[in-house]
Design a protein that fits this description.
alpha+beta, five-stranded antiparallel sheet, 13 helices, 45% helix, 25% strand
């Protein structure tokens, strides 16, 4: 009787056959190991991508916040000056273009229905943005407009300003006093921008309406820089309309490799924003590990896998920690920059080239004077700094005049008036003065910025006319 082969149940038939072909078994081990390494590399790249996408989203939101800071600075410019000319407005806006890439154009829509200092100029503009009475009741005229030099810019047509969402946003800015979000607009170069608005009042608060600041932001420029900084593809849509796409790396993963995608949606002042970050994985991203580890079999398998796992964990922890550090530093630096930028813009607005400017502390002691102040007063800056403004006081005004001035500014209000001062040589000169108190977080003045224009010649001419008539 023939002997039958009994199969050992502990050694399956296929495995026992494979042990006879070590090259096939080695190739199988190499393939399996390569597949594991590819998966691990993809996971590592995915974690890197997630960290980068989180940082990119934070960066985009910071740009939105900084854009509002620009709008507030423009309002401060109008509050700090008795009359902002078109050239001054253009000079200030052009300085903002250098540091805020997403600002494409800025407008000043003056209130032509009131009796403010811009109404006469606005009255010459025939076309008007009509704001219904229930949301503002103010006819506005496009008085000043500045476009980014790299943007194919021309003034927006009146149909854009009178679009329903835009009118509603402008009316809300006038009625509420804050920043509002308008609709999405198409610029001349075909790109898409969204608009924001804030009303400007005569006394810096909610007094007489001067007009509305309108700023158009084009997200495409910010998206481009964010994509380059974080090495991810970025697409942003506003109110369901695509407004910017930047591609800096592979869009779709190569064959058998994944494409990483993160969607980040949020509402900003009632406007829905949708960010999409993506990146495709290529074989070049995992090639070196595959080439090396594909030949590591047997006893080295456990050690290599253990080292990979430790390296991946360490790298991920390092990236997460670095991102936390960067996020914390960005938040701290952003806060510091906002404070510094606000003070810088306030001083910049006050230190106008054509004006006589000084800054005083809460006690009225001079802390800064510009050259025009020294020229008209006859004093050197070293003789003025640390002294009280009484050093140039004349005897033309009664004490009640100065008491009213001091009571006004110590209450945080802007003071306007004509003042007669006396120079070091004893000559009297007249100035049209505006004193703007800068307030701290408690609402108390921490410094006073005085902006003056020389009206001595005008006063002399008026006196001569009076004498001639008499």
């Amino acid at each position: 009787m023939a002997h039958k082969h009994q199969q050992n149940p502990d050694h399956p038939f296929m495995l026992s056959r494979l042990w006879r072909f070590p090259l096939i078994l080695g190739a199988l081990f190499g393939f399996l190991l390569s597949a594991v390494v590819v998966q691990l590399s993809a996971g590592e790249r995915e974690r890197d991508f997630m960290v980068a996408a989180e940082g990119a989203g934070i960066d985009f939101r910071e740009h939105l916040a900084e854009g509002e800071g620009v709008i507030n600075n423009i309002v401060l410019l109008f509050n700090a000056s008795s009359h902002v000319t078109e050239s001054e407005f253009r000079l200030f806006i052009n300085s903002q273009f250098n540091t805020h890439l997403d600002i494409k154009s800025v407008y000043f829509l003056a209130d032509k229905g009131g009796d403010n200092r811009y109404a006469r100029e606005a009255a010459a503009v025939s076309q008007t943005v009509v704001i219904p009475g229930e949301v503002g009741g103010s006819p506005l005229a496009q008085l000043y407009s500045v476009g980014h030099p790299n943007n194919a810019f021309s003034k927006l047509g009146w149909e854009a300003w009178n679009e329903a969402r835009t009118v509603q946003a402008i009316g809300a800015a006038i009625a509420q006093g804050g920043i509002t979000m308008g609709g999405v607009m198409a610029l001349d170069d075909g790109s898409i921008a969204f608009s924001q608005y804030r009303a400007v009042y005569n006394d810096g608060g909610r007094g007489e309406l001067l007009g509305v600041i309108a700023v158009l932001f084009r997200p495409a420029d910010v998206v481009k820089h964010i994509a380059q900084d974080y090495r991810v593809n970025v697409a942003v849509s506003v109110a369901g309309q695509m407004t910017g796409v930047a591609v800096c790396c592979r869009e779709v993963g190569e064959k058998l490799l994944p494409t990483f995608v993160v969607d980040d949606g949020f509402d900003y002042r009632g406007m829905p924003f949708q960010l999409r970050f993506s990146k495709g994985l290529g074989w070049g991203d995992v090639y070196m590990k595959v080439a090396v580890l594909a030949f590591v079999i047997g006893a080295l398998l456990v050690m290599v896998m253990r080292r990979l796992r430790m390296a991946n964990m360490a790298r991920t922890q390092m990236l997460l920690e670095r991102n936390r550090t960067i996020k914390r530093q960005v938040e701290e630096q952003t806060r510091a920059l906002r404070v510094a930028n606000t003070e810088l813009v306030q001083q910049k607005a006050a230190l106008d080239e054509h004006a006589i400017v000084s800054i005083a502390d809460p006690s009225g002691n001079i802390t800064y004077v510009n050259e025009k102040f020294c020229e008209i007063s006859g004093y050197h800056s070293d003789e003025l700094v640390g002294r009280n403004h009484r050093i140039v006081k004349s005897d033309r005004h009664p004490s009640e005049f100065y008491d009213e001035m001091w009571n006004t500014i110590t209450q945080g209000k802007v003071w306007h008036g004509e003042v007669c001062n006396r120079s070091k040589q004893g000559d009297e000169y007249w100035v049209n003065s505006t004193i703007v108190p800068f307030l701290d977080e408690r609402g108390l003045p921490y410094q006073y910025v005085s902006i003056r224009t020389d009206i001595t010649a005008l006063k002399a001419a008026k006196l001569a006319m009076v004498e001639h008539d008499s």
